[in-house]
Amino acid sequence: LRRNPGEAEFHQAVREVFESLEPVLRKKPQYVEAAVLQRICEPERQIVFRVPWIDDAGQVQINRGFRVEFNSALGPYKGGLRFHPSVYLGIVKFLGFEQIFKNSLTGMPIGGGKGGSDFDPRGKSDREVMRFCQSFMTELYRHIGEYTDVPAGDIGVGGREIGYLFGQYKRITNRYESGVLTGKGLTWGGSLVRTEATGFGTVMFAESMLAAHGQDFDARRVTVSGSGNVAIYAIAKAQQLGANVVAFSDSSGYVVDEAGVDLDLLRQVKEVERGRVADYVARRPGSRLVTDGSIWDVPTDVALPCATQNELDESHAKQLVANGVVAVAEGANMPTTPQAVALLQEAGVLFAPGKAANAGGVATSALEMQQNASRDAWSFDYTEERLRQIMTRIHDQCVETAEEYGTPGNYVLGANIAGFTKVADAMIALGVI
Ligand code: NDP
After folding, report:
1. In whole angstroms, what is the distance from residue 151 CA to residue 371 CA?
2. Which of 67, 79, 118, 333 could form a disulfide linkage to 47, CB 3.0–4.6 angstroms apart?
């Protein structure tokens, strides 16, 4: 706490992992001797930089850029960029720290990192976003590379932003280095399924978790918070599995659509028009917009928080339990507060933590890197099958590890320990560096 003052989200993420590790440290004293815990929560490198750009009115704007290169024991740093006004070092460090364990769980050779800016893409013109991205990359390019650090998208960073970032990287370096960024467009090095991967993977993980308890998605009521990249494809996959998705949200409120979300309309509003949830309601008879209260008030069987950190607190968890929720799977990073997680687990609700459940995005990014390295492009079905296998393996790893450490069914503990031990073993093998 004294070393990292004011970084509340980072402290929360570290505490959550470290609390799970007690039984491991008892069993494997070599981790204590090698000071793995002290080393693992200190980023290998943190880069903070000025991002000057000129808006459409000709005014100079200044934002702050970040890249935290947290841990490269397993491979090059890998993790997204977030553009949102709430971004500061504590958010980037929490996300980067989570990313270490998530990437380890995927079984792919990728280390952990994260970055972003306090730039708000909302309400900005395409040209403003482009000028910002070009300025951001004009500093970032010297720190990244296929073998060094491979950024991707996150909140506020989708295909458009990755395009502008990649274009500037290519221009500055004079290298068509496809593997330097993931989430690219399909005609310039991207992978099929990457757009869908995080949402699809979250639902696949939830499906495995439900199946392990004799249940499935068919005819279940599902609520999904957010309406961005992760939320949209979580809705799509849940619907494919026969669920009735009845609610989604953005920061202006939530929508209840008892007839089941019209996915084509939602994609048109959010992906094409970059509109608000009210624009969906305006064109969808029978749906309604709620601007007070919380989406977690809506009765549901399965809740998928897919918006942002700490969006589901203890009072929301109580409401979900009172309404008979069966499972909660995190599509977002750390959307459930520690108190809410404890409450859900005590009430017997199946709970899938983000670092396991949303790992499909980064796993598919690693598949994109594989395709780039071999100058290949795989089919949708093949790539989705690879994603499914990875999600099943992550699920099974969580279950087996939780059992091994005497807490069967505790996916939080299983994910934290399984993710940690692989990184810790690699760190010890590589020496004190
Ligand atoms: P998007 O920017 O595509 O969408 C984010 C959604 O969440 C929007 O609907 C946004 O609403 C809403 N939201 C964001 N902040 C808030 C807030 N403070 N209060 C209420 N709603 C909010 O981002 P993604 O879908 O990519 O990311 C969502 C989550 O998933 C994040 O936690 C991210 O870290 C995590 N994640 C993403 C991965 C990916 O591949 N994209 C991979 C793994 C995790 P509004 O438009 O009104 O701001």
Report:
1. 16
2. 67
